[in-house]
Amino acid sequence: MFTIKKNRVICATLAAAMLVSGAPVMAATATGTLVVTATVLASCTVVGSTIAFGNYTSSQVDQTGNIAVLCTNGTSYTIGLDAGAGTGATTSVRKLTGSLGGTLNYALYRDSGRTNNWGSTIGTDTQAGTGNGLTQNLTVYGRIASAQTPLAGVYTDTVTVTLTY
Questions:
Q1: What is the distance between the alpha carbons of residues 70 and 130, in angstroms, rounded to a whole number?
Q2: Which residues are CB-contacts of 151 (< 8 A; sequence separation ≥ 6)?
């Protein structure tokens, strides 16, 4: 009798195990979407270098400087240079001011032949470009004309670079 009960328990356990393991697992799925967005704003930065003419001895002196422009890819821009801080300066004739007084005339150009003045009127005497997401270096060509008779001393000027985009 004990064996019959034992067999019944074993059979019932096996039957239950078979029912559980043999039952199909029903899984449902659903799908949806995830919207991902980003906005890239047009932006630019500009940094100018120093143009160091060195010693002036009444002969023409040419020198170059650099303007580094970094704009987002596809951003159109223009670079303009003001007349500088020298008294009486214009964008055609800029003036270095001496530490002991006096001025020394100079000019800034957009081309190596020094024929295209670099000024501040968009569409006339500025430099245009389009950003590519990398730093773009623009050369500034400077010239101090010959036959000037300045006082001895150190001459300086500060020109404002304006980046419009």
A1: 10
A2: 98, 100, 101, 102
> Residues near 13 by Cβ (< 8 Å), separated by ≥ 6?
none
Return the amino acid letter for 75.
T
pTM: 0.80
The one-letter code for the residue type at 152 is: A
DSSP the chain: -HHHHHHHHHHHHHHHHHHHHHSPP------------------EEEEE---------SS-EEEEEEEEEEE-TT-EEEEEE---SSTT--SSSEEEEETTS-EEEEEEESSTTS-SB--S-TTTSSEEEE--SSEEEEEEEEEEPSS--PPSS-EE----EEEE-
Is the domain spanning 44-164 CATH 3.40.50.10420? The answer is: no
For 125-147, the pLDDT digits (tens) are 999 999 999 999 999 999 999 99
Give me the amino acid identity at 137: N
Q: Where are the domains of the chain?
A: 44-164
